[in-house]
Amino acid sequence: MEARLFVGGQWVEGGTRIEVRNKYSGEVVGTIPEARREDVQAAAEAAQRGAAAMAELPAHRRGEILGKAAELIRERKEEFARTIAAEAGKALKYARIEVDRAVSTFTVASEEAKRVHGETVPMDAVPAGEGYFGFWVRRPVGVVAAITPFNFPLNLVAHKVAPALAAGNAVVLKPASTTPLTAVLLCQVLEEAGLPAGALNLVVGPGSTVGEWLVTDPRVAKVSFTGSPPVGRRITEIAGVKKVTLELGNTSPVVVAPDVDLDFVARRCAVGAYYNSGQVCISVQRIYATREAYDSFLDRFVQASQAMVVGDPLDERVDVGPMIDEREARRIEAWVEEALAGGARVLTGHRRERAVYWPTVLTDVKPEMKVVAQEAFAPVASVIRSEDFEQALEQANATEYGLQAAVFTRDVDRVFRAIRKLNFGGVIVNDTPAYRADHMPYGGVRGSGIGREGVRYAIEEMTNIQMVVIRTGS
To answer: What proportion of the chain, given as a percentage, has pLDDT over 70?
Structure first.
């Protein structure tokens, strides 16, 4: 694919072309121009015009456009899925699931576009309010900068673009430079669906240049970013007076009580740890099994990990493809080596071929090791023995992050103890922290970020409350 940038409803050239490679074979699958500063400025200007048009567009029309986009994505499902598998290295079976989820995200957005409203305020609840009538409405913020990662090049884009458009905003989208082609297909879909010119603009390039130009542009009223904590902190430093949503990752813990089906839990944890090569903000990373469950669970989890099929993501049989690049595979290889040098044991995996890293199970790890304390973002999971359920909760909670955690138990008292104890944006019971439905509120606390996604909740972040007060007396 010889792609272009998308600015003001036109496909335009930019600077030097970026090669986009198949992450397994290394073959060039497309190119796209890197945005220059003038391209980013043009995109922001176009978005400002597009925001004015979107704010005037009736809710039913916004809903129709988003619904049409959902239909067009469904019609082009295989094209989207194969593009994702090639440029992101995601196994085709999971790429198809991502496309289905994006259809759901746009469908929900088409419905929520018709439900952006406010409520009355009982002004006479205080003496100063006598003789006044009050209500508030939600108004679009204007221009939204959407900066998205490589790991879900369609659905994480959808989670920013769809609610922004549903609320009546315009968007300047900067996808990851390693996976921009899926975003190009999405721009094509929204153009065909009838989106006004300038309502969606696409620029591509490094975060240190294109990203920062976008974040600091005074026409941008809202920044929505998914990515690493250091970049998130940088955005908060340079954004100025703007609304900001940050989703910055996790060291996702799982607590396993002794009263569960350990075969089921092991299989679910293996999928949760290794799909998309563990490159998911809510991938299973730390598993705390109570003393009674530990040995049996560990055996089953190793078997489930070894059953994962590794290889070319375009092969229908494959579960685990390459990481996004060889540098990342070398990084996690070094982290595991460091853990082994510190006394950890590897029970399976710890094998690398170019960018492919095999599903790896560690035990005897220590809390300060990188594979435990930092986000691995790789197909590596550690199984850790806990004396009892209470200790497992304490260990799970001992992190600077707080996106999602999971607990497996049949005991309702344990469930509610976990809900009270775990300081995370989401607590998943009897499934892994990798679970997400696209209409639920999603986001973290502590070092995992600011704000919430999930279409309705993202719309709240992408609108401002406007209070209206009318004096009714003379």
So the answer is: 100
Query: What local confidence, expressed as pLDDT, does residue 44 receive?
Result: 98
Q: 474 pLDDT exceeds 70?
A: no
Domain-located, residue 441: no
Domain count, the chain: 2
Residues 41 and 114 in one domain: yes
Cα–Cα dist 373/305, whole Å: 22
Angle at which helix 181-192 crosses helix 59-75, to 10 degrees, equals 130
- pLDDT tens by residue, 85-121: 999 999 999 999 999 999 999 999 999 999 999 999 9
Separation CA 348–CA 251 (nearest Å): 20
Residues 307 and 212 in one domain: no
65 within a domain of the structure (yes/no)? yes
User: In whole angstroms, what is the distance from residue 46 CA to residue 295 CA?
Assistant: 60
Question: Which sequence positions are flagged as catalytic?
Answer: 247, 281
Region 303-314: mean pLDDT is 98
Residue 149 has pLDDT above 90, yes or no: yes
Rounded distance between C-alpha atoms, residue 22 and residue 362, angstroms = 30
Q: Print the domain residue range for 73.
A: 5-249+446-470
For residue 215, the domain's CATH number is 3.40.605.10
- Asked if 453 contacts 158 with a C-beta cutoff of 8 angstroms, the reply is no
Residue 473 has pLDDT above 90, yes or no: no
> What's the CA dihedral at 151, 156, 160, 162 to 10 degrees?
140
